[in-house]
Amino acid sequence: MIELTEQQEREMIERAKAGDAEANYNMSLWALEQAMAEPEEERWNRLAAKCLVKSAEAGYAPAKERMESLIRQLDEEKKAAAVKAPAAAAPEPLPEAVEEPEPAPIRKSAPGGAFLDTVKTTAAAAGEKVKGFFQNIFAKKQSQPAAEDGAHASGRRKLLDVSGWGDAEWKRLRLISIIVCVVLAILLAVLIISGRKGAEPAVEEPAIPAAPTAEPAEPTATPVVILYPEETVRAEIAAADLDVFPEDEEYVTEETTAKVSTNGSVLKLRRGPGTSYNQIGSMDNGTEVAVYARHDGWALVKHGDTWGWCSDQYLK
User: Fold this and answer.
1) Beta strands across the sheet bearing 267-270
2) Torsion region of 99: left, alpha or beta (phi above 0 gives left; psi -120 to 50 gives alpha)
3) Which residues are paired to 251 by β-bridges?
4) SS3 of 254, please?
5) Across the chain, what does the average pLDDT equal?
6) Each residue of 91-128: pLDDT tens digit?
């Protein structure tokens, strides 16, 4: 506890008003102890903040370190609040995969051993019939009287005469008959299969819907809060000699300047946003000021080292 005599307290206040950085820092510590002793008195907190800001602006190292420590503490509290935000909803579980039915085996029409045996037997029988046919024709021709011209009769006898054929000629004839029968059988099978495929309606397999794939949830990024005015300016406003201080939503979001437009008269600065509050200063016509907050047609501005509220309608 900092205990000061009345004389020491007056000297410290005078030095602080004169701009002594060390005196302002000691003044802020003394005001904080007074605030802890009298928590219902808000003026001690405002006085402590105001003196700390002035000392830090004057370049006093302990004041600057304490100011930076307070700003870091505020940033850590904001980060801790952001971490406590509810996590993104977990993705729903994927539905169970649907088993696809096995496709029915495709039947292939291919000639087997029994088919080949049948073809060979049919070809052999056809060869024997061809042989008997030629033999019957030759026998009939031999029994008929030779009524045609000698040259023509001789030519036909040579063409149809198979009496002198040996086993080689008959084997050749049977081979030709087998080949012809095989070709005809293959053509017949192809025609039958083609006709059957054309008659049967095509059966389309039902399309199996693919299982939906849930996209992974993107991590929620912590929003970066861009604060304007800065913390040091807000601390200076909190330490100002005002009756009404702006709420968070009443601060402007970007740097704003305006010029006093009163047609020659002065614009009054007051402790609060209204004519019922005491006047603490005035601004001449044409004075350019920075606007930091607005409330019900009044603007919070800084004129020199003085913070105050003025009518917003006279700012252009």
Assistant:
1) 251-259, 288-295, 298-303, 306-311, 267-270, 279-283
2) beta
3) 293
4) strand
5) 76
6) 555 444 444 444 444 444 444 455 556 556 665 666 67
